[in-house]
Design a protein that fits this description.
mainly alpha; elongated; about 150 residues
Length: about 150
């Protein structure tokens, strides 16, 4: 996404035009587009300031904002639900298609995360198989043994 021009540059463009320079000449002189050189004096006369407006969508007004309560309700009911399942539920219930990463960002902005807490119990599953006592230094383990049917 682009960035706004600095306040200093805006003031210099406005000063150039106020001294009698044309907007086209100001655009060439400062290396900006003609529309920018036209917009800056208009902004000053309309708003009384040269400060840039906020870029982007206002916070809290995204596509998923109206459905955030619905998503939170489902996550609280089924804490281990996958994001793809949440996206499918949102589409089935409200007809709104959203990418799982968008749902993740919306839930994170609401204070919900999938990060495990340190106080949670560890998994009860241990190693899948105990090491065999016969596997010494010179003997290959079963997974590495070569086939003897050659």
């Amino acid at each position: 996404m682009g960035r706004a021009y600095s306040l200093d540059l805006r003031e210099r463009i406005l000063s150039y035009i106020a001294r009698g320079g044309s907007r086209h000449a100001a655009a060439r002189h400062f290396g900006v587009s003609v529309s920018t050189a036209v917009r800056i004096p208009a902004q000053m006369s309309e708003r009384g300031t040269l400060a840039p407006l906020r870029i982007g969508r206002p916070p809290g007004r995204g596509k998923l904002a109206p459905y955030l309560d619905f998503l939170i309700e489902i996550v609280e009911a089924v804490p281990d639900i996958a994001l793809t399942e949440l996206a499918a539920a949102l589409e089935a219930e409200h007809g709104v298609r959203a990418h799982p990463s968008s749902i993740s960002r919306a839930l994170a902005s609401a204070g919900m995360t999938y990060k495990k807490s340190r106080s949670a119990r560890r998994s009860a599953t241990g190693p899948r198989s105990a090491p065999s006592a016969s596997a010494g230094r010179g003997t290959p383990s079963r997974g590495c043994a070569r086939s003897r049917t050659a």
